[in-house]
Amino acid sequence: EVQLVESGGGSVQAGGSLKLSCAASGFTFDDHAIGWYRQAPGKEREGVSCIAISGGKTYYADSVKGRFTISADNAKRTVYLQMDSLKFEDTAVYYCKGPHGDWGQGTQVTVSS
User: Fold this and answer.
1) Ramachandran assignment for 70, one of left (phi > 0), alpha (psi -120 to 50 degrees), beta (any other)
2) What is the reported pLDDT for 55?
3) In whole angstroms, what is the distance from residue 59 CA to residue 57 CA?
4) Which residues on neighbouring strands pair with residue 42, listed in sequence order?
5) Closest CA to 103 of 24, 10, 42, 8
């Protein structure tokens, strides 16, 4: 059974940082890509960043490029999202998505201006 468990969310002031974690199980971790998505109140879920575990190729949405960094630890089967210079508009529930369309439960990020 595929499981994705996000953690690391919280409340910060604008300009602050948070590091999200997505712990994965139930599939061959380094054969796939893992993505981070977010959904703000009243808005559609949008892609933020993703990483190909084998090879490390990354993608970032324009809105977070230069501020967020995605990484993976194969030994821990965990994907991280380091979020720096946070803005009010980064406020959302952040989800990770597995290779077969599986979603975690999400973690809330709240940025106060």
Assistant:
1) beta
2) 83
3) 7
4) none
5) 24
